[in-house]
Amino acid sequence: MSHDWKFCVAPMMDGTDRHCRYFHRLMTKHARLYTEMITADAIINGARDYLLGFDESEHPVALQLGGSDPAKLSAAASIGADFGYDEINLNVGCPSDRVQSGAFGACLMKEPALVATCVTAMRDAVAIPVTVKCRIGVDDQDPEKSLFEFVDKIASAGCTIFIVHARMAWLEGLSPKENRTIPPLDYDLVRRLKRERPELSIILNGGVSSLGEAIQFFPEVDGVMLGRTAYGEPYILADADREIFGAECMAPSRESVVLKMSAYIKEQFEQGVRPHSITRHMLGLYHGAPGARRWRRFISENAPSARSDILDQALAQMTLAHV
Question: What is the arithmetic mean of pLDDT over 285-289?
């Protein structure tokens, strides 16, 4: 498989929008980036440029779709491919109330035949890879059985790349936030899936909190996807190209990232984008570094009414702290 899937940043609702992905791309050239989940209905009926637009620097970048209607998913996948995305990913793992009411996301773990039909429809519509992100099971399913049966059914529709969040999803009794932490992780099951289905590409997701931890899963799986850690501590991405992909490069400094993001904010400001919608993704940039609290406080307190030079001001505050 392409090493594009070796290390990925997970799709996160209210997180991985185009501004967040632009920011992340400044720190890693090779990690695969994902949009937030966007419903097929929204793409078909909504403001497509707003929902799907992205900067060319974001490649490789994947569009994650939510839905369960094969015809609508096919149409949305085709639109996404026309926009230039490198992959269409179907969400079969999100346990939120929103997706349950729409009968998609993790609910679809119980309907592998429907998912297979959806995958077939999307693959017929596009020439780029169609992949699936799932859990190991939902509710009272036995993951030792349900995961393999689910994957086999979807693989029979031609899908060869699976991103597996190594937890059950509880559709009743746990909130979406609790579903990210309370169900126990079962990495061994995901490893076994790869061993017993070697022809498939298996990317492990869930609970991975560092690049070093991600590396420990190789070569037992084909790739690792980081979610909340990559969002909350984004500067760890600066070492990904060297540590994960073996690139001979220096990690960009935090200051250089801030300066490039400052230029980006000024460009976006001219197009009517509020700085806060961009800087909110940058609160954790100095996580674990001197001045982290000062950085976070300045951005949080000033961003809602900020001018386009907010990052220049924030960087000046960080410089003053070290005088």
Answer: 96
